[in-house]
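Entry 14. Structure prediction run on the chain below.
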Amino acid sequence: MRSAVVTGASTDIGRACALLLHSKGWMVFAGVRREEDAAALREAASERLHPLLLDVTAPEQIRAAAERVAAAVGESGLDGLVNNAGIAVAGPLEFVPPSELLRQLAVNVVGQVAVTQPFIPLLRQARGRIVNMGSVSGLVSIPFMGPYSASKFALEAVTDAMRLELAPWGVEVVIVEPGTIATPIWDKSGAAADALAAGYPAQARALYGAVFDQLRESVVAAGKRGLPPERVAAAVLEALTAERPRTRYVVAPGGAAVRVMRHLPDRTRDSLVQRRLPKRPR
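Output returned:
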């Protein structure tokens, strides 16, 4: 029986990944932060799905999860680790508090590495695979999503380095790069951005108010029209099972356009993005 750990499995992409792998006969260890989320997963699956209380910023929970998984898989090792847990911090970088930047990076970058480290010996045993959940925001950055994009750009670098470091043992490291997916993360991000903005000085509203409001509305609206999480889960399954997986999987409408945007000259890309924004005061 193949085995996998999926972080951030309470809802949305993580839950879809956990349930899809379970449906394919895998033993799944699903990381959640609340006991009620663990209970909901137990109700949706069989005894092959094992919820784990796992906050990726809590060393003691990471250590306990790794010990539990090691005891369960034994000498077979671990076939897959899906680093999905993440948050999205939004706002103009001129005013985003450094503490929020640290929180963004602590969850989306440091947390991913912290979780991965204790599982590498188990992955090495099974010649398993690591799938990191990136984003098209890690390929092209847009205004007011700088903190989130910074974390996803960093995760691209982490993935590339880790892929090279673990290649001698046959451990593949892949990044999946979703576009806009229909998940509440965008509603949560919008609400969190509003809460942050409430603490900004009046100057922030004068400088950025109109453009920030419009972009926030468009991001939340796009999230409601986004692809279903199951599309991302399908890409994760392929990354875990393909004989020779790709190093990157873009899961987005117009994925080719994202790749083109990434390689355009900076000024050309800036111009294309700025045309979609309302004019701001000077």
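The first helix runs from residue 12 to 23.
Filed with the rest of this week's runs.
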